[in-house]
Design brief:
With 404 residues, the chain is mostly beta strands. It has helices at 289-292, 355-364, 383-403; strands at 5-12, 47-51, 67-70, 82-88, 94-104, 106-115, 126-131, 148-155, 161-166, 190-192, 205-213, 223-228, 231-236, 242-246, 249-251, 263-264, 278-286, 299-310, 330-331, 341-343, 346-348, 373-380.
Length: 404
Amino acid sequence: MTKKGSLIVLSLLSAIPLLGTGTSAMAQVGIAKKYPHDKGISSDPDVLFASGFESKFTGWTSVPSQATIETDPTVVHRGKASLKITATKGVDQGGTVSYKFSGQKQIFLRFYTKFHKDTIMPHHFVKIRAIKSGFWPNAGQKPPGGSGFWTGLEPTQKLIWHFYTYWHEMHSWQTVAGLPDGRPNPYYGNGFTPAGQSAIVRDVWICAEAMLKANTVGQYDGEQAFWIAGKKVGHYRKGEPVGNWVRDGFVSWGPYFKPSTAKPFEGYNWRTSSSLQINEVFLQWYQSSSHVASWPATYNIVYFDDVVVAKKYIGCRHEGSSGSDAAVGDANVGDANVGDASVGDVRVSDANTPASDATRSADAAGRSPIADGCSIVEIPSSGPQGAASLAVMLLCILLLRIRR
């Protein structure tokens, strides 16, 4: 027995989260699990569209000139082709490959992406959108509730992921209270940055998935979530996470997080009309001239592959007999925390995260110290985690008896 706790042998069939964690570490089984190597995944009744770019741009709605098919075997993810989008400094600002579909209440978008080793992270990236026919979204403006809402899963310059989101109840960047003060363009994308992320690595394929769920009109039951390497990193819905609104960002960790005034997230009232439904996705690579001005690279390049649009959770490609859904060479979420509290477009470094924030970060990312198989772990001798560990130990004993 140590001062901090005791050593207990645990044996579990699957990961079990400790009491009090913000997001379950239980692995999700997605559509991709039924289709090794994604073979035949487009035939699934819950899949709207799938593209590995083996047939080039077949099925896509629009393709800009900056988008080409990459066939270099040392670059592509799987198969013989991937999408390459190039933004050339002084010439263009990149481009957007889009896919439009009949309206849905909930959409999952899974894609693999790789950032060229010399590229700057983009000004804007992948999006899921609900856009009424004839409505043209404008940056800096709040969209009407019956015309549009959208979210972007984007890498920040601090190399972690966040949501960049527009809807009719969004907050303004102009005042701490999130209200406009009369200056032009009062509303830019609201920032939602989950804690506990590892740094994005360039020149490595990353499995990413985003979900957007429309609300019931008049209610705050809209949601958005994202996964990296098959692991849920952030989920924003009524009741979670706990945090504070500061200007145009909802902050749940870092220097702007105030536990004394923090409240559960209110959820999203995305729309005011049930006829407004989610109807398009973007593979966007937008590099504004001012954004890349001081970056040394002339060509800023990103790659995409193995894209799936579906009505249910997809998950990373299942690699068949290997039993793994995260292919060799794909980036996985580790345990290193990167400080980057996002308040809208104002990003604040938080390298000196206190221990309490580090614990909260681990919880927000859904990590659990209890993993598959038999493990020897040190647990607290008292408190909520001690109680949770005791419950797990009893379950472990039961499982061991069954196996005998």
